[in-house]
């Protein structure tokens, strides 16, 4: 089956200044777009500052220097994406913020929640997760929230521009507030937010709009490519390798050309891709500190609640004892 041959490729006359999706570094590209909008280069870079999100002073790193920082992959505590220069850093806490994240607006009037101002916030604890109302991804970085309506958007969804271009469609798309609209990408109804074409019936949710162009997953040793209909030479019926349900040939899929394997986008999507791990916690039911990690192998149960959990979810783990606790147990009753 041939995949990814898109007859609706973006018209070359489309405004090049629009954010063009999908992109490999989706969040970083979005922040570059945001930086242009607010003329980030014109904002003074203070050598040291106090930020509302952290208790200690943050130091500016704007030029790569040997031995300034270690070589491990570092994530911004704001957008939960790999750090890049310039950024601010607290060595005491291993806390990082992109220069662009430091300068995010503290209040936002968003078109899909115009009733109230939304405030820039972060969770009370480093392991406090929230789920974005637009893309449904769980994360522990910054978010814009309306407490009155219990409505929350992560910063990447909140900062999406009013108009975009997407490889799956030839016309520009404008942001819309969903109302049980059918997403042309996934085939599911969405009621929160998305993008539509004013010339066609094409509509996609925020979730579909931000799917990466390629993805690596344990179900296939090759890179999987986001592919759009029409698919040539596809069989009368073809199925998702993960859930084994039939794939609608009019919906987007992830596909491996080498193995000729296809996957629903909902099955392959990582719903915990914006979580920063590594924090440690003392608990009163175990003698050693527990580390906030991503579960990479199946567990049968947890000490406190006895429940199993899906693989790839965040948990707390003791490396010495192979002892684990789920987030529910942590937050309910066992903190010191």
Please describe what this structure looks like.
This protein is mainly beta and 336 residues long. Among the domains are: 214-268, Herpes Virus-1, CATH 3.30.40; 280-332, Wheat Germ Agglutinin (Isolectin 2), domain 1 (2-Layer Sandwich). The chain is 10% helix and 29% strand. It is built from 6 helices and 25 strands. The protein has helices spanning 26-37, 99-102, 155-158, 206-209, 265-268, 327-332; strands spanning 19-21, 48-49, 58-61, 87-90, 95-98, 107-110, 113-121, 130-131, 138-139, 143-146, 151-154, 163-166, 173-177, 181-182, 189-190, 193-196, 203-205, 214-217, 220-227, 253-256, 261-264, 280-281, 290-294, 314-318, 323-325. The protein has a 5-stranded mixed β-sheet with strand order 1-12-13-16-17. The chain has a 4-stranded antiparallel β-sheet with strand order 2-3-4-5. Strands 6-7-10-11 form a 4-stranded antiparallel β-sheet. The radius of gyration is 21 Å and the shape is globular. The relative contact order is 0.13. The mean pLDDT is 84.
Give me the side-by-side strand order of the main sheet.
1-12-13-16-17
Helical stretch count? Answer: 6
Structural class estimated from helices and strands = mainly beta
CATH architecture of the domain at 214-268: 2-Layer Sandwich
**Biggest beta sheet summary:** 5 strands, mixed
Brief overview:
Keywords: Repeat. With 336 residues, the protein is mainly β.
List the main descriptive attributes of the protein structure presented here.
Vacuole_Formation_Reg; 5-stranded mixed sheet; 336 residues; mainly beta; C1-like_sf; globular; DC1 domain-containing protein; Herpes Virus-1; DC1; repeat; 29% strand; Wheat Germ Agglutinin (Isolectin 2), domain 1
